Amino acid sequence: MENKTNDQTTQPKGENRRSALKKLAVAGTAAVLTPSILVGQDNQYKIVIKGGRVFTQGALKSLHVGVTYGGKLKLSETPLEGRTIIDASSKIVSPGFIDILGDNASNPRQTYRLFEKYKVSDGVTTVLQMHGGAMFPKKFHQHFDRVPHYTNYGVSIFVMRLRLRYPLSKRYYYVEQGLEQGALAVAHSMEYQPDTSYAEVLEYAKLAKKYDRPLFLHLRYSDEKRELEGVKEAIRLARESGGARIHIDHLHSTGGTFNMEKALELIQNANNMGLEITCCVYPYSYWATYIVSKRFAPGWRKRFGMTYTDLTVVGTGKKITAQTFPTYRRRHGVLVAVPEGTMPFEKTIDLALQTDFCMIGSDGGIQSAPRANNHPRGAGCFATAIRHGMDIGMSFEKILDKVTTLPARLMRPSLNNRAMLKDGNIADITIFDPKTIRGKASVANPNQFSDGIDTVIVNGDIAYQNKKLLKSKGKPIIYKG
Ligand SMILES: [Zn+2]
User: Fold this and answer.
1) How far is CA 342 from CA 128, 255, 305, in A?
2) Three-state SS at 314
3) Is the pLDDT assigned to residue 7 strictly greater than 80?
4) DSSP-assigned states of every residue in 321-333
5) How far is the CA of 103 from the centre of ligand 1 (A)?
6) Ligand 1 centroid to 361 CA: how many Å?
7) Which among 46, 73, 77 is positioned nearest to 425, based on CA atoms?
8) pLDDT of the residue at 38
């Protein structure tokens, strides 16, 4: 059907199938046909989405969407025939959301199913762990490519872990090896390893540039006085590496918490000069991090203008106190959240969202059940982002750009045949109801599916519908140069 120049394939697939069946029946072999071939013999497409407003080429259009039996897209102004029909009247049909900052690095073999379950239920079809990922992406894929996935998945090179294990020369060697083997990006977090010199990060930036991959950075400072130094360091890295693509993780929590306007201006000016610097935010006005982390090193109350009782253990709702803090501080894996409004929307996230270089990244993931000790962004980031975008008057086109097109451009060329609804692309689709979409995950109970996510299609199969998990057709995403 895709090949209109060939007479034999201009007839609908159903026609081909029917005539093939006839021939087989004549030959007396119809009895061996499997039911899956017989089902839908009259239907041209495996799935047809009708009546929705479809986000394509940067605009919302009334179109019908067909998914071929090979999992490819076909857009049409006229109705299509399909084996499964999805009525998307009053809904929006978007490319599946891409989470560039999913985080499930601590124990992925045990938790990846749960992690992906809460991503797909939030409308995410591709989860890329670009904040950390894996020390050896090839090894990661050797394991994970053999098991079922709800979403597409990929990793960056986790420099923090390499640094804990190897001397400088080995780190560079393994980063380069990972890039040669198809790692999607290089990732480092200077705030968590303050002994990282500028010269060392510059080497990573140069390698990223050499292999045409982005360098993802959690910047060096998050306090009011120095946060902009971190932004300037990222810009300097882009410049002195000869133009590496630099992505700043969660700018509103690290780099632009107190001086967002200035941070955005610095980035905009750098981009105007021809550099390529992007950033992401998650749509929550509070951050959460592990209590053992450097963020809570002595002086944290002064640095953040907070006290003990401002910290809540995620998943329990329990408050920390001056008495319990020292004990918790020694416990690995305890995630605490700061109060809502710590990063006021109007002074941080909303400003960043107005720029064309800021996208959505969750910086999270659900790793346990029934109540995870993970920031609710792990389950509700994307539905919350769309609801928030609507609340502050952003157009659908603008907010959908930040969850589809912009992340795909940053990861180019690895997602070039996804992230955009157009003929021949791979069918990763999220259908949502603009009236009801919203994240439900909370600090007290992060394990909640988002509302309003109607259907999620991954590689041409329905992975999630009506709050139920269905097929596991996620595929590995590696760099394709
Ligand atoms: Zn971070």
Assistant:
1) 27, 14, 10
2) coil
3) no
4) -TTTHHHHHT-TT
5) 10
6) 11
7) 73
8) 43
Please tell me the distance between residue 168's alpha carbon and the centre of ligand 1 in angstroms.
22
pTM above 0.85, yes or no: yes
Residue with tokens 């780190």: 171
Å from CA of 345 to ligand 1 middle? 18
Least confident of 14-18, 207-211, 351-355: 14-18
Where does 7-90 sit in CATH, by number? 2.30.40
Backbone region of residue 419 per phi and psi (left: phi > 0; alpha: psi in -120 to 50; beta: other values) = left
Q: How far is the CA of 470 from the centre of ligand 1 (A)?
A: 32
CA of 303 to the centre of ligand 1 (A): 17
Q: Where are the domains of the chain?
A: 7-90, 96-286+340-414, 288-337
Q: Please confirm whether the linkage preceding 370 is cis (ω < 30° from 0).
A: yes
Alpha-carbon distance of 131 to 109, in angstroms, equals 18
Distance between Cα 192 and ligand 1 center (Å): 9
Under the banding of pLDDT at 50, 70 and 90, the label for residue 43 is confident
Measured distance CA(360)–CA(71) in Å, rounded: 26
**pLDDT of res. 42:** 58
Are the C-beta atoms of 440 and 382 separated by less than 8 Å? no
As to burial, measured by CB atoms within 10 angstroms (0-12 exposed, 13-18 middle, 19+ buried), residue 396 is: middle
Q: Write the CA distances from 194 to 31, 94, 130, 333, 336, integer angstroms.
A: 69, 40, 20, 20, 21
Question: How many angstroms is it from 435 CA to the middle of ligand 1?
Answer: 32
What is the number of other CB atoms lying within 10 angstroms of the CB of residue 446? 30
> Cα(50)–Cα(79) distance, rounded to whole angstroms?
7
- Distance, CA 458 to ligand 1 centroid (Å)? 28
CB 60, CB 54: distance < 8 Å: yes
- What is the helix, strand, coil percentage profile of the chain, to 5? 30, 25, 45
**Domain 96-286+340-414 CATH assignment equals 3.20.20.140:** yes
- CA 251 / ligand 1 centre spacing (Å): 9
The residue ranking higher by pLDDT, 106 or 406, is 406
By CB atoms closer than 10 A (0-12, 13-18, 19+), residue 33 is middle
